[in-house]
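Worked example

This section walks through a single chain of length 200. The input is the sequence exactly as stored; nothing has been trimmed or padded.
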Amino acid sequence: LVLAGLSRGRQREEAHLRSVAETDALTGISNRFALFAREQARLRDPQRAPFALLHMDLDHFKEINDRYGHSVGDAALIAFADVCRGVVRHASDTLARIGGDEFVIVLHELQDPGTEAAAVADRIRTLLQEPLDLLGHKLALKVSVGVAVAHGPVELEAFLHQADVALLDAKKDRGSRHTLFERNLHGNLIHELEEALGAG
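Given that input, the structure is written out below as tokens.
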């Protein structure tokens, strides 16, 4: 009985440590470590395809931090995580904060991944149209979203890169939109960067 009690105590402690290691301390959602721990194997499974990945970045977040302070910036991140929690459709989907003001949603159980991912992105942007009360400041958050779609097995690192390329395109001009990754996007962005460097 004593050994069984010790074993249960150790299991609880290990579960607690694992939860701490896989949880973003600020928002309470999964962190980058948890994203890779959960999704790396699942995205390699052809039986689970298709998939969609949304890479989201708050527009002008640095300005919020600079103008209102880091406490309001943190409140904005918490509020955004709560909005995303509300649009995650299935327990099989994963929501994670992967750093700074960057968030990821991996969508599973899809019929039409491009359309369904776009609908999730639109839903998030619609919910953010109402100003949020962030520690006494009424602020309307805006978000840019890069979307990548896979119809078969995919490596998570490559999937994130595709969504990141789409996100860079979504943030052009004034941002606050979503872009679906296409093969020519990467070349277009490199060309634009080379032109900008040449002009400079």
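What to look for: The CA atoms of residues 147 and 180 lie 5 Å apart.
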